[in-house]
UniProtKB/TrEMBL annotation:
Ligase recorded as keyword: no
Protein name: Fe2OG dioxygenase domain-containing protein
Keywords: Iron, Membrane, Metal-binding, Oxidoreductase, Transmembrane, Transmembrane helix
Keyword Flavoprotein on entry: no
Top-level taxon of origin: Eukaryota
Species this protein is from: Buddleja alternifolia
Residue stretches spanning the membrane: 80-98
Molecular functions (GO terms): metal ion binding; oxidoreductase activity
One Pfam family in the UniProt entry: 2OG-FeII_Oxy
Residues covered by the Fe2OG dioxygenase domain: 140-240
Family from the record: Belongs to the iron/ascorbate-dependent oxidoreductase family.
Coiled coil: none
Length: 292
C-alpha cells in the first residue's frame, strides 16, 4: 500500500515553536537566550552495552538461530527497552537529500521491518501473531516520520535538544548522521546511546509497554546538543491503526490476573500528547493502574 503523507495542516500540531526555528537560523549566536535555557545534567555514562539484535537470525529459516535471536529480542525489550539492529541499507538515507520518494521508500522498508519485529515480539510474549494484527489493526498501522536538526549550540550545558520523554507507538526507529547526542535511561542512570553507523536504533514505545502489560519497557530518553557539530536524527514512530483501542492484551491480563494499564484509542492518545502540557506526569504514567 502506498503510504499517505499527512498534509501540512494535520502535521501542524507536531511543529515546534517558531522561535526555535529562528534560533537555529542564527549561526552567530553566542549564548542561549534566557527563555530557551534549560539547565541540564547531561552527564551520562558511555555505554557499549545496548543490546544488538541480529535481524537476519530473527528472520532466518534456521529454527535454532531464530529462537536464540527471539530470546535476545525479548530480553532487550524487557531490560533496556532499546536495541540496535544492524541493517545494511540504512546509510543511504542519511546522506541523501530527503525528498518525497526517499521518504516513501523508507516508510515502506521500515514498515516491513516493523511487521517482522512485531511478529517476533508476539512470540516472546507467547501471543498469536494474528491476535496482534487483529487487535492493533496493523494492516493500517500509523507511522510518524520526524527529522530532528540540532545545530551547534554555544552553551550546550544551558540547553537541551529534546527533554526527556517516551515515544508513542510500538517500536520507534532512529538513524542519525554519526554525531552523538541521544541519551537513554537505564536502571535510573543516563547512558549515551551510541549506535553503529549501519544500524537502526530501535526503542520500545508506550503502546508496546501497555499492550504487553508492562513486560516491555518504554524507556525515557533525551537528546543533548554540542557546540561543534550539527546533528541530524531521523525518527520513524510505528504505531497501531489510529482507530485501534490499545490496552493490555487479553491473554496477558488473564495470565497476570489484572490489567496494569487502562485502554485508550490510539488517535485519542496522540491528540492528548500534542495538546496537553509536556511537563508533569507523562501520559504513559497516567495510563498506569496502581494498587492491583
Ligand atoms: O534525536 C534523537 O536522538 C532523539 C529524537 C527523539 O527522541 C524523538 O524525536 O522522539
Ligand atoms: Fe523520542
Amino acid at each position: 500500500m502506498e503510504p499517505i503523507l499527512a498534509s501540512q495542516a494535520s502535521l501542524r500540531a507536531f511543529q515546534c515553536d517558531t522561535g526555535i526555528k529562528m534560533l537555529s537560523d542564527s549561526p552567530n549566536l553566542k549564548s542561549v537566550p534566557s527563555n530557551f535555557t534549560f539547565i541540564n545534567e547531561s552527564a551520562a555514562a558511555s555505554s557499549d552495552s545496548i543490546p544488538i539484535v541480529d535481524f537476519y537470525a530473527l528472520t532466518s529459516g534456521d529454527p535454532d538461530q531464530r529462537s536464540k535471536a527471539i530470546h535476545h529480542l525479548g530480553k532487550a525489550c524487557e531490560e533496556w527497552g532499546f536495541f540496535n539492529i544492524l541493517y545494511i541499507y540504512i546509510y543511504i538515507y542519511i546522506y541523501i537529500y530527503i525528498c518525497r520518494d526517499v521518504v516513501v521508500e523508507y516508510t515502506e522498508r521500515t514498515r516491513k521491518l516493523y511487521r517482522k519485529l512485531v511478529e517476533a515480539v508476539s512470540e516472546t510474549l507467547e501471543l498469536e501473531t494474528h491476535y496482534v494484527n487483529e487487535v492493533l489493526k496493523l494492516d493500517s498501522s500509523f507511522q510518524i516520520f520526524v527529522t530532528n536538526l540540532y545545530p551547534p549550540c554555544p552553551q550546550p550545558d544551558q540547553a537541551i535538544g529534546i527533554p526527556e520523554h517516551t515515544d508513542p507507538g510500538l517500536f520507534v526507529f532512529l538513524i542519525h548522521n554519526g554525531v552523538a547526542g541521544l541519551q537513554i535511561e537505564h536502571n535510573g542512570e543516563w547512558f549515551n546511546a551510541d549506535s553503529p553507523h549501519n544500524s537502526i536504533l530501535v526503542n520500545v514505545a508506550d503502546h508496546l509497554e501497555i499492550f504487553s502489560n508492562g513486560r516491555c519497557k518504554s524507556v525515557k530518553h533525551r537528546a543533548v546538543v554540542n557546540n561543534e557539530t550539527e546533528r541530524i536524527s531521523i525518527v520513524m514512530a510505528n504505531g497501531p491503526s489510529m482507530d485501534a483501542v490499545v490496552g493490555p492484551a487479553a491473554p496477558l491480563v488473564a495470565k497476570d490476573g489484572a490489567a496494569f494499564y487502562s485502554s485508550m484509542k490510539y488517535e485519542d492518545y496522540m491528540e492528548s500528547l500534542v495538546t496537553k502540557s509536556r511537563y508533569g506526569k507523562s501520559l504513559l504514567e497516567q495510563m498506569k493502574i496502581h494498587g492491583n
